[in-house]
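Q: Could you write out the predicted structure for this multi-component system? I'm mainly interested in how the pieces pack against one another.
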Amino acid sequence: MTLLMGAVAYDPKVVTIWGGFRSWLNDNGLPFDFVLYSQYERQAEDLAEGRIDAAWNSPLAWIRSRRLAEARGRTLTPLVMRDTDRDLTSLIVVRADSPFKDVADLKGETVAVGAVDSPQATLLPLSYLASRDVPVNVRRFDVGVGLHGDHIGGERDAARALIAGSVAAACMIDSNHLLFGREGTLPAGSTRVIGQTAPFDHCNMTVGETVSDRTRADFAELLLSMSYTDPKVRPLFDLEGLTRWEPGRTSGYPALEKAVDETGFYDAAGAVTAADYRP
Amino acid sequence: MIVDLGDLGFEQGAHILLQRALGPLRPGDEVGVAGLDPALAMHVEVWCRAKGHHTRRADDNDDGIRVWVTRGRADLDRWMHAERAGGPSPLGIVDAPPAHWGLAARGALVEPGGPPIAADLASRELVWADLAPALYANAAASQWDPATAIAWDAPVDLVPEIERAVVQVMTFLVENEQAALVVPARLLARIHPHFREVLQLLAVQAADEARHVEVFTRRALLTGGEMGTSSVSGRESLATLLREPDFSMASFLLSVLGEGSFLNLLTFIDRNAPDPVTRQVARMARQDEARHVAFGVAHLQHQGTLDRTLLGRLRGAIEQRHETLISSAGLNQDVFDSLVVLAAGEWTPAGIRRGYAAVQQLQAEMDEGRQHRLVRLGFPHDEAAELSALHTRNFM
């Protein structure tokens, strides 16, 4: 039976990536197909309901689909993740010439964040500030809502607001701090990092119980065997931003689980409870 | 090993220094990164994560080191099965370059994979001629500027009928040169770029024809008149050249027979031109055409050494073109008459007799030239004479 995976079309390259993976997996003996979603919530629901066998999930979609599935007595497994999904951090960034030396200095200030559903640019850094008892005014940049922060637009707008001087600080993932520096959104030397979250994990390939243990094991084994030396695989890895697949793990998600609970983004059974979230 | 980045940040290119330090190391080896940029350790971690290297933060005892990098192997894996696309000189040409080498420079180290190039002429045997590099060098050195190579302001003051004859001949030349431009341009897009010198030569050949089209048009319009006529038979004849898909056959029909005949025609115009501009444009174009003929002959001589069936196929190509054109009128009568008038140079019975004889002489010279080149390709004399007679009456 064909293993059916969901992926969110946050960018046209998603078709190239999963079309390529589809060919490779089929060529290597695993009947595999994929469907595309316009946003993560429907994908999470379909995975939890067993309408698809697997999903390439954002960390937030992992949390929601897991909660939804468990509420129905089902189990989901984070099968594999990219090497680049492990141990990421989010940053609290201020202008280099600002008076803020420490996150505590941001008390009562305005902080720019990404989209409402961005783990790395909104949920995790705001939870980090809350854990340090730093209440702030949040200015949100809702770009690509429903894409769980995969669309970089909100984060970039937050960075621009910081440079424009309209906010005291901006939140972003560590890799985007470097990217924005390189592309000139944040001129070199113009910012200081005054806060950094503990490492967390990002996407994973979540698999449900609609496929046999054997299929699940074959799927994992095949993905983990994909090699950067393979000229058919390498361009796909380059597009998807990994050099190898790693086994999935749940140890990198507790901080996001906590942030989701703190903000009431989802309830314990996986229902969307965030008041102003319309994917 | 330690790399000190000074105050250079990763948003200013610091990765290049780190990459240089990691390059010669083996996977698993460690490099300490020192530097003053406040965001350094964080950016090293981000960069290394994307490149498949591992990191650990230094501790206070590490004396200036901010972060330790353990070399990964993604960059080595990328090039593990890379290969050289032959060698840069003609000696490095391989017989059958793979399609995935594509547009890579000959001799480059090619990462495996990537899109195959759609080049159906991809074997040395099919496209190469040892003379190609030298001919290209000669062609590149012989390029001329139509604006300055011709004395456009030289006096041109012909009686109207003679001028009209010149314009008709120029119109015919433009039509033929356009065919001679399109044929190599189409062929070069089909040749694997590994055979660089052949592409270069065909590109210059197309550029030569582009200049010829320009100067013949400019001469035609020099006195403010209209262009001459274009006959169905002329276009029919040229269309058979455009339809020939085989590289060697196309080269044979266009360069050896067609442009070969044009050498005689351009010499004729040079010799009989009634004005200096007409003489010059014919002379400049002739220099280029001689090169095109030389490549065609060299290519086919090379082919002949590899392929015993070549002469038979060449014969077949001539015969087939002859069959196709047998019901066609041949040369535009306007062109023939205009050549007579051009050579007559005057509107008198004596002049016309002289002009007519000159054109007959031209046709004999064309036939002789074709026979000579066919013999050089290996045809016996009698067969060369027979085949030359089958060549299109349209010259090209």
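A: Regarding packing and overall arrangement: Chain A has two domains: 3-85+201-263, 90-196.
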